[in-house]
C-alpha cells in the first residue's frame, strides 16, 4: 500500500488536492452549479460533442497547471471507476465537472476552499 502511495509523486500531490476529490455535495447544494453541470454532462453524451472533440466521460486528457506548470495525464470516468493513483478522476470531482464539454486549448478554473487553480487542456484523446 505504501509503495502505491509513494511510487507516484503526482498521485500523492493529487490525493492532497481538493480539485480531485468528489464534489457532488457542493454541486447538488448550489442550483447554478447543478444546472451548469447537468447541461455539460448532457451535452457530453451527445454525438455533437464527439464531432467537436469535446471532453466527455471516458476521455483521456492532458492538462497543464498554469501556476506550477505541472503536466497531468488524466481520464474522466464515472465515480465508481475513479482512482487517482492511475490517473482516473470522477466527473463529479471539482476538476472533472469543470472539464466536461471543454475543448483543446480551453482554460479551466477550479475553485476549492483552500485555493484556486487554472488548468489548460493540452490534448484530448479517446
UniProtKB/TrEMBL annotation:
Residue stretches making up the Transcription elongation factor GreA/GreB C-terminal domain: 53-124
Nucleotide-binding found in the keyword field: no
Keywords: Elongation factor, Protein biosynthesis
Keyword Transmembrane helix (UniProt): no
Gene Ontology terms for molecular function: translation elongation factor activity
UniProt cross-references to Pfam families, sorted A to Z: GreA_GreB (PF01272)
Protein's UniProt name: GreA/GreB family elongation factor
Origin species: Catenovulum adriaticum
UniProt lineage: Bacteria, Pseudomonadati, Pseudomonadota, Gammaproteobacteria, Alteromonadales
Amino acid at each position: 500500500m505504501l509503495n502505491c502511495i509513494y511510487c507516484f509523486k503526482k498521485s500523492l500531490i493529487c490525493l492532497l488536492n481538493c480539485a480531485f476529490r468528489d464534489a457532488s455535495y457542493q454541486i447538488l447544494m448550489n442550483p447554478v452549479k447543478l444546472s451548469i453541470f447537468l447541461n455539460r454532462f448532457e451535452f457530453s453524451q451527445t454525438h455533437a460533442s464527439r464531432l467537436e472533440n469535446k471532453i466527455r466521460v471516458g476521455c483521456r486528457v492532458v492538462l497543464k497547471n498554469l501556476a506550477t506548470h505541472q503536466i497531468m495525464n488524466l481520464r474522466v470516468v464515472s465515480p465508481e471507476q475513479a482512482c487517482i493513483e492511475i490517473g482516473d478522476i470522477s466527473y463529479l470531482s471539482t476538476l472533472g465537472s469543470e472539464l466536461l464539454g471543454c475543448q483543446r486549448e480551453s482554460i479551466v478554473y477550479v475553485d476549492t476552499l483552500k485555493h484556486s487553480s487554472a488548468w489548460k487542456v493540452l490534448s484530448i484523446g479517446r
